[in-house]
Structures are given as C-alpha cells and as structure tokens.
Amino acid sequence: MATPLGARGTARPATTNPHPAPAGTPLVLSGANVVLPTGTVENGQVVVEGTRITSTAPENAQVVDVTGNWLVPGFVDLHNHGGGGASFTSGTTDDILKGIRTHLNHGTTTLVASTVTGEMDFLAHRAGLLSELAEQGDIAGIHFEGPFISPCRKGAHSEELLRDPDPAEVRKLIDAARGQARMVTLATELPGGIDSVRLLAEHGVIAAVGHTDATYEQTLEAIDAGATVATHLFNAMPPLGHRAPGPIAALLEDERITVELINDGTHLHPAALQLAFHHARSARVAFITDAMDAAGFGDGRYMLGPLEVEVSEGVARLVEGGSIAGSTLTLDRAFKRAVTVDRLPVADVVAAISANPARLLGMSDRIGSLEPGKDADLVLLDHQFDLKGVMRRGEWVIDPQLG
C-alpha cells in the first residue's frame, strides 16, 4: 500500500511563520483580493478551520495579513502526464507522488493523472496502480489519452500501439480503474467511437473528443452521443476551415462542450486562445498543463511512453519527427500568462483553472471555489501574479511566511 501524499510531505517543505500558531489553530487570511464565484472582494478574508473554509472566525483564530495579494482557489488540472522528472504512465508509486508534489508546489491542489498510448494490458495494470492513489486522495482519478485515437492526428503517441475504440476494450480500462476513471480521449469518428462515447456516458466517465480527424458533422454526432470535453482544443485535430469547419467549430459552438486549452505560449497563438474564450466564454474553458516529466524539472531527454522526447528551452518535442510532446507547463505559469499576456479578467482565469474543471469532475461541492464548507485549497499570488503560497486541505504546502 502506498503512503498517502500528506504523510510524505512535499518536495519543498513548508516553512513556518516567525510566530506560528499551534497546529490546528484556525486562520483568518485577511486583506487580500479574494476571488469568489460572485466576484472579487477587495480587502476580503478567508477563514480556515481544520481542513475546511468556514464562514465565521472562532475567537482563537490567528489573523494573517495578506494585504496586497490575491487569494484564489487551488488549481485543478484535468490533463497531466507527470512532472519533477516523473511519469504517471511508467513511473513507480514514489515517482508518481514526486510528480504530484511538483505540481502541488505550483498551486495544483487537485490533479487527474493522464496516461499515454500503450498496450492494453499495460494500461490496465497502470490503471490499477493509479486507482490506489486515487482511493487515497492523492489524485482525483485517471485520464486515458490513447490508444483510441487517430493515426492521422497521433501527436506524441506511438502509431503501432493505436487501435479503434472497441467498446469492450474501453470497458476493460474502465473496469481496471475500479471506479476511478474520470476521462477517456477518443477519436470518435473511428469504428466503435460513437458506441464507446455512449458507454462512457452511461458509466459517468467523461468522453473527450481529441487526437481526431473528424468532420464537423461527425463531431456533432459524438456530442449528441454524450461527449462533453474537447481534448486540448486546436491541437491534434484538423484546423478550422471555411468550407470544412471540422471539429473545432463544432466543439466551440456547442454549449455542452468544455474546451481544454494549453496556455504555455507554444501550443496556442494568443489569438487562438482569445477565439476560444470569445465563443466558449469563461464558463466552458478549462486550462490544463498536458505536462510531461520535464515540468518543474528541466531540459534534457525523456521518454513519453515508448517515444523519446527532447526538451529544449522548456519546449518538448519528439526526437523523431519533431511533434510537440506535451508541455513543461505548470498551472501557476498558465494563470500568470492568462492575466498578464492574454489580458483575461482574473475571475475568468479562476473559472478556467479551478471552478470549471472541478465541475467536470463532479467535485464542485468540495473544491473549485473559496466558499464555506469546501476544502481549504487555496493559492496566494502577489500583485504581479507570481505564486507566493499554497494551502491544501488547511495545511500550508508553501508557507508565505507572513506574520
């Protein structure tokens, strides 16, 4: 049995305040710009008691002055393959926990572990290992990206291991995940694709359209069958055309679809990101990392499944062919870029990076916003939107060292 993440600590231990309160003392984080579902409250406060946010401060609460900073909900990453030099597809349990801690130190308090294309028996085995970590609360579930994707839009997936989305094989992965499968990315135009979407919907698993060569009409059919997410919109799918609009137009225009976006400055031109927000609005966008091992670790050679990847200046590409191979993004960087480069309203960024993915995961009752009764998962950002502190379930992961 793996040790729960909380018992292991973090890759960078939390420091302490100059005059720390006794463990378990309620906290009042006071004076920040607090981003709530109803809007931003200037000079606001968030009360933390135990692992939860509460509405009123007990008499013994310690007041922590965070004036001039931003308090936002902990980040929620739907699509993440690893970090800190560790892969969720091939690493040991300790490796996986290292990757989780790496992203936690960058504000991601809830993470879905994504696999890449592999042999079916191998993926089923990985699902068993990852489901144990999900049951312990270290991850929020499993996302299978591949092998049910198009060879025409395979990206950084091994073509030899791709297969059509046979519902029986999709069901095999669901069963192997022991109730912890959260999402499966499919090229829904392939034989068995629509039936597989229906199967996933029936089992409460997100069917995501991605790595697809589908037409506009085929994409609409998948949405009608129950698909609800676009895997990294624009990437690994046909470009938008004026006579053959393809999947992008269908995914952007349909209110049932939430679109994933990788906001690292490499995967998307800023105009593409603006186009997505214009059509899908902030309520239907989810920022993801699509991170691989090098996130939070550095340049060098890595393996993504069976394929070798070269990371240079933070950009990951296959050694053979040069396709982009995931990202080295962390969500704190995605947040800052969205506000400072893309000039998006802070509330819209919070929706895309916390509230919307929490909703998709069916976890909005616990995470995704700073409201009484929810987990005390929060991120403290300074006035330049650089990460300053991270709290998960009421405990500082990165302590901002404020008096």
Describe the protein's architecture and organization.
This protein has 403 residues and is α/β, with parallel strands linked by helices. Helix content is 26%, strand content 26%. It contains 10 helices and 21 strands. The protein has helices at residues 5-8, 93-104, 120-135, 167-176, 193-202, 216-225, 246-253, 270-280, 331-340, 346-360; strands at 27-36, 39-49, 52-54, 62-65, 70-73, 75-80, 82-83, 86-87, 108-115, 142-145, 181-186, 206-209, 229-230, 258-262, 285-288, 300-304, 307-312, 315-318, 378-381, 387-392, 395-398. The strands form 4 sheets. Strands 1, 2, 3, 4, 5, 19, 20 and 21 form an 8-stranded mixed beta sheet that branches. Strands 6-9-10-11-12-13-14-15 form an 8-stranded parallel beta sheet. Strands 16-17-18 form a 3-stranded antiparallel beta sheet, with no helix packed on it. Strand 7 (82-83) and strand 8 (86-87) form a beta hairpin. It starts with a helix and ends in a 5-residue tail after the last strand. Mean pLDDT is 92; it is low at 1-19.
